[in-house]
Structure prediction request, 398 residues.
Amino acid sequence: MSLSQTCDVAQTCDVVVVGLGAMGSAALYQLAKRGVKVVGIDRFSPPHDQGSTHGETRITRQAIGEGEVYVPLVLRSNEIWKELEAETGERLLVQNGCLIMGSSTPASGGVIRSAFLERTQTSAIAYDIPHEMLDAAEIRRRHPQFMPREDEIGYFEPGGGYLNPERCVAAQLDLARALGAVAQLGTRVISVSPEGSGVKIVTDRGELLAGQAIISAGSWASSLLGAPVARLLSPARQVMHWFEVDPEYAGHWSQSPVFAWGHGPSPNDFFYGFPSLSGSNAIKTAGEQYDAFVHPDEVERTVTPAESVAMYEAHLAGRVRGLRPHAQRAVTCLYTVTPDSHFLIDRHPESERILVVSPCSGHGFKHSAAIGEAAAQCMVDGTSTVDISAFGLSRFSP
Prediction:
């Protein structure tokens, strides 16, 4: 059956979700859970490794240094992850603690990283999130694999940890299908436009009409949304590396909290990592690049050994112990960055029936379950229980 046969008139298809990664899979599940007749479309077969939602692990933390406005999203997401775990039997959320390190007198780290430690602690206090502030000596005592300078401090949150992005996406897609959602995979969306009282979606497999549409296509969203939204979305190539653990530090790395470390004034002076997962004998770590924008169909997917060497020398050398300097493997992913690095969740200026969901500028997965719920509520009720007004388009108006 073709897609147009599956959903060919607005009355039989309430909502179309374009892009089934972190946000789209969550929205599809939440809509199906509410009894909405919904179709999800993805050009690949999620979970996949072509976008932003892959790589075994994604950090989650409850106090959010990017701003207090995010805290309700992550707290609600944690509730949803646990509900999904109970329903599916999958292990999605591991709360092994999160350690954020940086200078006690930091220079600006760009818009999103400015006063990151301070704002994280402020969020924790405002929402009564358990945490500790640690000096360099205490960090080294608890976690000998880390070597902070004397002027560096740490924020430790026992409720932080990591999510498995592939399992999270797969679990929500499976549940959505079980509830009646249609997932049309391997299908490229060519255009999305208002059509009468609905929205027309043109794909390489035909056309369909829906009452409303959610565009959660990540780095491909700009090609579908047009002006003025497209100018706000800049895809950036990112690289994740897996470095082998020295045997004498295997215990420290297997018991490590997830960590993030800002060590300089540039937005690129930042890296993060995870514990050594069972059987891996390696840790995953990555920096962030905000100065290498790419087209998602033209991004260089091959990671050279020189890139891993540069990662080690720029971030790991002199800061962590117990890692060998050559990566076992490395893969790319994409951030889609807004000018202020905050989320973009709003109705399209040319159609109230089209909801733009994210992009998330590299810090969105932890919030994705709640964003999917909020998007579904906007489709069904016209508004969401979690306030998402801070993520509106109006903040970019001249």
Summary: The longest helix spans residues 71-88. The chain has ten helices and 20 strands.
